[in-house]
Amino acid sequence: MYTFQSRIRYSEVGPDGKLTLESLLDYFQDVSTFHSEDLGLGVGYLKEKNMVWVLSSWQIVVERYPMLCEKVITGTAPYEFKGFVGYRNFWMETEAGERIAYANSIWSLMDTVKKAPAKPTAEMLEGYRLAEKLPMDYAPRKISMPGGGKREEELSVKTHHLDTNGHVNNGQYVRMAMDYIPADFQIRQMRAEYKKQAVLHDRIMPVTAVSEEKTLYTVSLNAEDGKPYSIVEFRRD
């Protein structure tokens, strides 16, 4: 288990003065990065080994969004390795111990030279000490895109969308998808499935779908061939 303390910043809140979903996702990405770097298993280590962790899916559940200046503790823990696949939980709590958000994620370890899956090294298996799986309602990794979706205006991948691997950062797909849901849609759960990686200047063709009750929005961010880079699902209470 690994945690860090913080305070909700003005740059992280929306018009309502509460932490945005995008900023919450950033907290979760940051805590896993801090964890890896502090173990000596971060970006530099992976580069030396010609490896990279590729995110396959997110499931984030929000009990409530913390307010501006609220003090929070963000944590993470891996709970299983299965071949080249790693499973990791995340959470955000108040100083009083109230759990306000939590998540599950699934990652694949890839060899960047062979372009093939790779098994975790001995250092990874020793460093990433496994914890108990968080109690939550675990959703499937795969997301189904409803039929009859609406084709939206195409997007182009810019430099600010990219991470250190030269691919669109997983959080950027969520930011793109959030442009297609109403501003007053209170997101209780976000799921994202990542299918392939977009790079600089790729064109993204979004397709959106909404449930009849308007409680579920699904956005497929597609390549020019119609195959999705990522599918993102937003659900409210």
Describe this protein with a few key phrases.
237 residues; globular; alpha+beta; twelve-stranded antiparallel beta sheet
Outline the structure in words:
With 237 residues, the protein is α+β, with helices and mostly antiparallel strands. It is built from four helices and twelve strands. Strands 1, 2, 3, 4, 5, 6, 7, 8, 9, 10, 11 and 12 form a twelve-stranded antiparallel β-sheet that branches. The two termini are 30 Å apart. The model has no long low-confidence stretch (mean pLDDT 96).
Structural class: alpha+beta
Helicity, in percent? 10-25%
Order of helices and strands: EHHEEEEEHEEHEEEE
Number of helices: 4
Cα-atom Rg, whole angstroms? 18 Å
Mean pLDDT, rounded to whole units?
Answer: 96
Beta percentage is: 35-45%
Reported for the largest beta sheet, the result is: 12 strands, antiparallel
Query: Which regions contain 5 or more consecutive residues with pLDDT less than 50?
Result: none
Task: Give the N-terminus to C-terminus distance in angstroms.
Answer: 30 Å
Gross morphology: globular
Count the strands? 12
